């Protein structure tokens, strides 16, 4: 049957709308849903980012929907460096290297090279997912890494293991982090009762780069004893972490009622953390949740050399962290 011209146009528009709906419906690729009891976590193909973590109807993470673009670094894996490299410049083994400036407003390279690429799903079952990606030699980072992210839900909550292998022929500079936003159900972070087991904080300049590491004692950054965040603005790195008998440093977020909350623990390979109250996010997201970012090294570590891993060919580095929700 011959389709009249108007019908052809209508059909083309319908196809276009259908395609648009399909694209809008999923901005982050394959969705890997993990379940254990009433705990549910979702990991996405794009960047192997942690999209959500819920217990029943309660959010543990302030994440994003499958049809949303990732903003604010939510749940993203930061590799082969977390946080910032000032001006994108660093020197490694006598060679001057220049990374692309992915934070142009401050003239920095930020959060690594694998946030916006597809990761391959290599294992996936009811409560576990494993994704892999490669960092190939490129301008500013002429090294070859294989990176694996493993997510596991069990009785203790969510555990994340991030491992990188040097598949190249040269020693590679390496750092890693991740960028989850936690919530305990308060309207803003102001009412969250926060505990941070850190003895030092890193004072930063207007570009977010450390200029000094100082004791937290006597400063607004001392959260060694639990207290409400209040109006405190944080986009701050912390170091000298105090650890428990398991070797974990535990950041605790508690609801002001004291009845429930979430612990984010930093284990093997996680030597620093960044706390961010979200003051520079767009209006509706501002101070809605608290970013607690485990990191193997502080900001600008490629330039300063602080805690940078010199990853030998064939060698690997592992960082572990996790979230344990709790209720009284």
Following the backbone from N to C, one meets helices and strands in this order, namely HEEEEEEEEEEEEEEEEEEEEEEEEEHEE
Integer count of domains: 1
Proportion of residues in helical segments: under 10%
The N- and C-terminal alpha carbons lie at a distance of 70 Å
Structure commentary:
This protein has 328 residues and is mainly beta. It has a single domain, classed as Beta-galactosidase, Chain A, domain 5, CATH 2.70.98.10. Helices cover 8% and strands 43% of the residues. The protein has two helices and 27 strands. It has helices spanning 5-25, 301-304; strands spanning 31-36, 39-44, 50-55, 58-59, 77-78, 84-86, 89-92, 95-98, 108-110, 120-124, 128-135, 145-154, 157-166, 172-174, 177-178, 181-182, 193-195, 198-204, 210-215, 227-228, 235-241, 249-254, 260-266, 272-276, 290-295, 309-311, 316-327. The strands form seven sheets. It has a nine-stranded antiparallel sheet, with no helix packed on it. It has a six-stranded antiparallel sheet with strand order 16-25-24-21-18-19, with no helix packed on it. Strand 3 and strand 4 (58-59) form a beta hairpin. It is globular and about 55 Å long. It starts with a helix and ends with a strand. Residues 1-24 have low confidence and may be disordered.
Give short descriptive properties of this protein.
mainly beta, nine-stranded antiparallel β-sheet, Beta-galactosidase, Chain A, domain 5, six-stranded antiparallel β-sheet, 328 residues
């Amino acid at each position: 049957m011959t389709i009249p011209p108007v019908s052809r146009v209508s059909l083309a528009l319908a196809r276009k709308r259908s395609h648009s709906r399909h694209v809008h419906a999923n901005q982050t690729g394959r969705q890997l849903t993990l379940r254990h009891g009433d705990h549910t976590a979702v990991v996405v193909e794009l960047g192997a980012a942690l999209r959500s973590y819920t217990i029943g109807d309660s959010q543990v993470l302030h994440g994003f929907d499958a049809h949303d673009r990732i903003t604010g670094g939510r749940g993203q894996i930061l590799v082969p460096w977390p946080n910032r490299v000032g001006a994108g410049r660093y020197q490694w083994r006598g060679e001057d290297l220049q990374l692309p400036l992915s934070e142009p407003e401050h003239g920095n390279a930020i959060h690594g090279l694998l946030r916006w690429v597809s990761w391959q799903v290599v294992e996936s079952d009811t409560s576990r997912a494993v994704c892999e990606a490669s960092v190939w030699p490129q301008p500013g980072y002429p090294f070859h890494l294989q990176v694996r992210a493993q997510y596991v839900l069990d009785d203790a909550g969510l555990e994340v293991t991030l491992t990188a292998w040097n598949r190249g022929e040269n020693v590679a500079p390496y750092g890693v982090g991740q960028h989850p936003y936690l919530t305990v159900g308060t309207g803003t972070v102001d009412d969250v009762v926060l505990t941070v087991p850190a003895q030092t904080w890193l004072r930063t300049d207007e570009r977010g780069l450390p200029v000094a590491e100082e004791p937290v004692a006597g400063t607004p950054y001392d959260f060694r004893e639990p207290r409400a965040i209040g109006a405190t603005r944080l986009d701050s790195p912390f170091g000298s972490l105090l650890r428990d008998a398991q070797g974990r440093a535990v950041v605790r977020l508690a609801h002001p009622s004291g009845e429930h909350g979430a612990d984010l623990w930093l284990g093997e390979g996680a030597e620093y953390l960044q706390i961010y109250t979200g003051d520079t996010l767009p209006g509706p997201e501002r101070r809605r949740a608290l970013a607690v970012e485990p990191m193997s090294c502080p900001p600008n570590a490629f330039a300063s050399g602080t805690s940078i891993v010199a990853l030998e060919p064939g060698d690997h580095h592992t960082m572990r962290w996790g979230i344990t929700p709790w209720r009284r």
